[in-house]
Amino acid sequence: MDNVTVEADALNRVYGSNAVVRDVNFSLRKGEVLGFLGPNGAGKSTTMKMLTGNLAPTSGSVKICGIDIIEQPKEAKALIGYLPETPPLYKELTVDEMLTLSARLHGVARGSVKKAVESAKERCGLTEMSKRLIDNLSKGYQQRVGIAQAIIHNPMVVILDEPTVGLDPIQIRDIRALIKELGGEHSVILSTHILPEVEMVCDHVQIIHKGQLVFNGSIDVLKQQRHGNRLLLGLTNAPDTEELLKIDGVVSVEPAANGLLRLRYAEGAAPAERIVQSAVNNNWGLYQINPDQTSLEEVFMQLTYQEAAAN
Ligand SMILES: Nc1ncnc2c1ncn2[C@@H]1O[C@H](COP(=O)(O)OP(=O)(O)OP(=O)(O)O)[C@@H](O)[C@H]1O
């Protein structure tokens, strides 16, 4: 149990008569990167605020390295770095000034501030930007400053709420790489509505749907669930469905978007090579074959259906 950094126990949050977070339980260990995945309005930000002690739960508790965040907020919060949905940046300050201020606010000893600022800048690729006004930085660099202020006191737990929203693809790639790297030394919780982001960055994932956790497990299990034994096939000269069904392992064929065919295959079967063989031998004009990945919405539907069936 020693290396448990975050423990959420039966967390609930009600607004008026609206239960927006319902009975959320989980724990996180040192070095893990946890993806907290859910569509807009699922309750991610509300959960992040409760985890960081910025919002009191209606019931339930949060412990950071064994310290209760309601009973001992100062001690527990010292172990957390938090990047809220809107980064808390004073845009009229330079990067150095902002990070020096953050270090002081996070209680870094006066004599260690300079070192903490240099180290956070280096980890977040900000050294070149030290003297620049935050207002003049691109959104991607502003987000890096947001992450730098969250890690400046070298906290055990780093919580990032939708850190890649509004960034361009190159900035997104860089920020994801940075988050992945943080996982080595800290526990990281990353809230996002982007399924591939979780697959790229996290080793654990929790899916929240209408305030409830509907999945809590390793990323590999989710990937398996997502791949779902389906292939998309593009043939310029497609044969009758019966011909495709004759291929060993193929269990169904249906039309998909853009003139493609969706083939389902039996669990454990790997028919791709046989399909390619048949296509070449019979001149079906194969121009595409790839796994048909389930969208986030479909994964939600599958998971909520399983949940309902289990109850
Ligand atoms: N202060 C509040 N008062 C009343 N309802 C609220 C309040 N804050 C959030 N909610 C509601 O709680 C639900 C969950 O909101 P939350 O911001 O946690 O979702 P989210 O998953 O973070 O989505 P988003 O990515 O859109 O922020 C939403 O229906 C929202 O309208």
TrEMBL record:
Q: Can the keyword Iron be found in this entry's annotation?
A: no
| PROSITE patterns registered for this protein in UniProt | ABC_TRANSPORTER_2
Question: Is Cell membrane included in the keywords of this UniProt record?
Answer: yes
**SMART domains from the xrefs?**
AAA
**What InterPro entries does the record point to?**
AAA+_ATPase (IPR003593), ABC_transporter-like_ATP-bd (IPR003439), DrrA1/2-like_C (IPR025302), P-loop_NTPase (IPR027417)
Query: What region holds the ABC transporter domain?
Result: 6-235
By sequence similarity, the record places it as follows: Belongs to the ABC transporter superfamily.
Name of this chain's protein: ABC-2 type transport system ATP-binding protein
Per the record, the gene is yadG
